[in-house]
């Protein structure tokens, strides 16, 4: 059962408005989303959930549940993303954030890093060409104004080119992105990794704002307010790459241990905010302090932000990230000041 997954492409095609459809048959959209990204393994889902999804897609269970082929991870060198919600090559990633949480900075940084790997960056501009996209455009190779232009330009690039394609949620709601993806796949253009953003910040209030996804990056208001960037929530962000068949057990083990620590740390932070750190039980102090250090370590200087932060951007391999996180979890850096872990690369 570990090698099974939902046929996300089929769901995307057959049930465009999955949120409404799921609710209409008594399914929680969040459950469907977690099944699509692999956060909930198919083997642990309820049979009635799978049957209901098959009915919605008007397909058989054999068509809905497929054997999971290896999903290649695009290593970004960004600690939080690579460890907790890896970028799935050729998949669709949704960025969920309100304005001001840094989603466009993260997207610009991803584009900057992907260009170094030979990707061509294509942006479908939303209507009105919003001013906030100005800095992002510096990292874009091809900017287009219509779905037709996007299809034509990507077709011209050909099937042998890795493409990072970005569009706003407005094009998802209209159904244009789905039609574009179908056209591209029919013509053998399958090396396209799609990024969907929400410039209006409405996606935060929706259950499945982009439909089925391979990767979800959920931004966090608290991290952003405390200037802990990238403000991507390691507890709510996820990816189909995290399925057991796709990652080695060492990665999964460290990722799960880190999430357990961060989950408890966030609960303790609420207590500290209300009553002060001195009121924490002695048994919880170690958990709180290690959570602080891990949260600080997951911040990272970006190349695109160098002119503003005056900090040199850094790339950290996923293996180095995992090794460092293990050290924090095991208490090897308990004597380090938390501030010394903010905006570093590796522990060194």
TrEMBL record:
Any matching Pfam family: ATP-synt_VA_C
Subcellular location(s) per record: Membrane
Protein's UniProt keywords contain Ion transport: yes
A GO molecular-function annotation: ATP binding
Boundaries of every ATP synthase A/B type C-terminal domain copy: 246-305
GO CC annotations on file: proton-transporting ATP synthase complex
InterPro entries assigned: ATP-synt_VA_C, ATPase_a/bsu_AS, ATPase_alpha/beta_chains, ATPase_F1/V1_b/a_C, P-loop_NTPase
Main location: membrane
Alphabetized UniProt keyword annotations: ATP synthesis, ATP-binding, CF(1), Ion transport, Membrane, Nucleotide-binding, Translocase, Transport
Family statement: Belongs to the ATPase alpha/beta chains family.
Annotated protein name in UniProt: ATP synthase A/B type C-terminal domain-containing protein
Organism of provenance: Peribacillus deserti
